[in-house]
Amino acid sequence: MVINQQKSCANCKHCLVGKFCSPEWISKVDAGKNQLLYRKGQYIFYEGALVFGLHLVTEGKVKIISNVSGSKEQIVRLATDGHVLGRWGDKEDIYENSAVSLEDSVICFINNDLLHDVCLANPEFTFQLMKYYASELRKSGKQIKCLGQMPVKLKIVETLLHLVEIFGLDSKRNIAAAISRQEIAEMAAVNMEQVSREITALKKRRIISTNGKQIIINDLEKLQEIVATQMDILDLDS
Amino acid sequence: MVINQQKSCANCKHCLVGKFCSPEWISKVDAGKNQLLYRKGQYIFYEGALVFGLHLVTEGKVKIISNVSGSKEQIVRLATDGHVLGRWGDKEDIYENSAVSLEDSVICFINNDLLHDVCLANPEFTFQLMKYYASELRKSGKQIKCLGQMPVKLKIVETLLHLVEIFGLDSKRNIAAAISRQEIAEMAAVNMEQVSREITALKKRRIISTNGKQIIINDLEKLQEIVATQMDILDLDS
DNA sequence: CGCGTCCTTGAACCGCGTCAAGCCAGGTGG
DNA sequence: CCACCTGGCTTGACGCGGTTCAAGGACGCG
Questions:
Q1: Cα(B46)–Cα(B36) distance, integer angstroms
Q2: Which of B119, B107, B114 is nearest to B45 (CA)?
C-alpha cells in the first residue's frame, strides 16, 4: 500500500464523509483534508498535544494508548478502516491519549474549522458521527466492566475476542493483525507473563494455536463460551 | 422538586435542545418528549431492554451500571444535569447497561424518530451531541486507564476526585451527592472494605472528613497530588 | 555465529479480596 | 422513651491470585 496522491472521500469504502456528505461537500473535504501514510509504529498524534482536528482511518490499524507513570502503557481502544481517531477540539484542548499505527496505515486529517462546517452543512454526517462515538462509548463501558470485574484469565480471553471482533480472521483463521503478547497484555491490563501462560493453556486445549506471533482461533464458540460462563480454562478436561 | 406539568426545553438550563435547537423545534420537542420524575433508586432503563430513544437529565443524578455475573455491579458512568443517558438506537438495539437515579431526578425522554428529525433539522444540536459523546468517551478512557493500571488506594482517591468533578462540592465542602461506600467500591472496581480502610486512612491525614455517610473534602489539592505523584497515603507523615 | 528482542516458564512474594465479627445510626413498635 | 432490629459501615485476620523477579529458549538479523 503506497499512496502518492490523495484519494477522494467519494471512493473511500468506509468513510463517513463519502457516505453521508453531499457531493459538493465531498469535494470541499477532498480539497481541505490531508491524507497521510503512517508507517507501522509511527505516532499519529501524541498525548498532551493540541487537538487541531479529527483523524479518519482510511485503511489500516491503529491503537490508542495512554501512558502510565512513565513506563507502562494502557491500550484504551483499537481502530481500523472507517474508524475515527481523536475528536473535535476546542482551542487549548489537548489529547490525553496517543495514537500509534499497528501497521502501515492511511489516515485522513480534517481540521476543526472544516469539520465544524461539514457538520453544520451535512446533518446526516454529523448524526452518524454522533452514533459512532455513542457506539464507542458503549464498547468502552464493556471494557470497563471487563477490566474491573474479571479475573486475569477471562480478561485475556475477552481481549482475544475483542481482537477478532475488531480486526477479524483471515482465511487461515489467524487474527488479522500483528499484535504482540505485550500489546495483548496492555489491552487486558495484565502483564505479559500471564498472557503467555494463558495462551499456552488455550493451546493445550486446542482452542487456539500459534504460528510464530500469529494467533490462530480454532474454536471461536468455545472462547465465547468461556467468557459467557466465566469458566476457568483449567477446569476443562482435555 | 415536584413536577406536575412538563417544563419546556426552552427553560431548561443545561439541556442541549434548549440551547442549540431553533424555537420551532423546541416547541416540537416539547410536544413530543416525555418528562418524568424518577424517585431515588428507581430504574430509568434496564440492561437488555430495547432502545426506544434518548434520555436527557433535566435535573438530578444518575448512575449507569452494568451487572456482573448475577450479583456484582460495575458503575460505568455517572450523569447529572444536562447529561445524556443511553443513545439513539437502531431497531433491535438493546441497552447493555442500566440507568438508576441516585436521587429524585427529572428526566426527558425523546424517541428515536423524533431525535433523528431533530438532529437533521438542527445540525448545531447534533454537533454538540456528538461532542458530548466524544467527551464521555474521553472520560471513559481515563477510567479504563485508572482501573487497569492503578493500585487499589489510588483507584479510590481517583474515584473521589471523579465524584467531585461530576457532582461538585456544596458550601460545606461535602461531595454533593448521596453516595454509599458500596457505590464508591462499584465505581473503583474494588470491594467495600478497601474503600472503608482508605477513607479511614485519608481521615487520619485530615485530607477528608466524614459526617455520617457524607464525605467532606478538606484538601482537594492534596488528593490531586496523591494521584499525580502515585503517592501511597501511608507514606505521608502526619 | 553472536547478539538482541520477544517470548516462555518457574518460583517467591505480597496486595487485595474474602470471611467474620463487631459497631453505629436510624427506624419501629411495644 | 427505650429496646430491639436492620442495614450500612468498620476493622482485623487469613489465604489466594497475580505481579514481580529471574533464568532460559526461540527467532530474526547483521
A1: 16
A2: B107
Phi, psi of A72 (to 5 degrees): -70, 155
The position carrying cell 415536584 is B2
How many domains is chain A built from? 2
| Residues A34 and A70 placed together within one structural domain of the fold | yes
User: For the segment A207-223, what is each residue's pLDDT rounded down to a tens digit?
Assistant: 999 988 899 999 999 99
Strands B34-38 and A84-85: unpaired
Do the chains contact at A133 and B138, CB–CB below 8 Å? no
pTM more than 0.85: yes
**Which CATH number covers residue A189?**
1.10.10.10
Q: How far A4 CA sits from the closest chain B CA (Å)?
A: 32
B13 touching chain A per CB within 8 A:
no
Q: What is the pLDDT of residues A167-225, one digit of tens each?
A: 999 888 989 899 999 999 999 999 999 999 999 999 999 999 998 889 999 999 999 99
Judge contact between A231 and A161, C-beta under 8 A.
no
Torsion A138-B15-B127-B164 (CA) sign: negative
Kindly state the greatest CA–CA separation across chain B: 62
Same domain, B44 and B160: no
B43: contact with A, CB 8 A cutoff: no
CA distance A109 to A49: 15
Nearest chain A residue to B94 by CA distance is A138
Instruction: Evaluate the CA torsion angle A11, A129, B88, B44 in order and state its sign.
Output: positive
> How many Å apart are CA B131 and CA B150, to the nearest integer?
28
Does B129 lie in the same domain as B14? yes
Grid cell listed for A165? 471482533
